[in-house]
Design brief:
Length: 185
Amino acid sequence: MISEIDTVEIVAGLMMVAARTAPKAMAVDSIVTKIVAGKELESFAKKMDEIGEQTGMTFFNTNANHLRAADLMVLIGVKGCQPLGANCGGCGHATCAEFGKEVRAAAQAVADYPGPNCIFKVTDLGIAVGSAVKCAASHNVDNRVMYTAGVAAKKLQVMDECSIVYGIPLKASGKNIFFADPVMH
């Protein structure tokens, strides 16, 4: 007999495939995916709480509580610091060669993510995340894209090869835990 959590795990795998097969600029795949489940979810939630307390950005704490209630989470990141060769200037440099020479500060130092990033790679990440959440929604699994979980991933050095990471927690329940406000009596 298959359980609801088994089905959520299957959908998470399908989301990874959706991210992988999403269109990419110049057909260069720089997307990285990972499933986080079980006790590992709590380490992410604790890191999100810590960031919220340190920065005063309480949405980190709210999202940490949502993550604790999730069945599992899909991480999707991009290796955005790799030049693509288009020389478009979207990164702020005249050429991809100049962009490639840029010295990037570690995400853990000050900023959440190292930069600059290739604009095409960032676009690829957005398309991959959109494809993944569409897949989850098509299978009626509640989800929410969380920048906060991606920041926690970077601080925990999970998917460290990526310059930008987003987390997408998943839940199968009678009420969407990510958007539905609690009933006030």
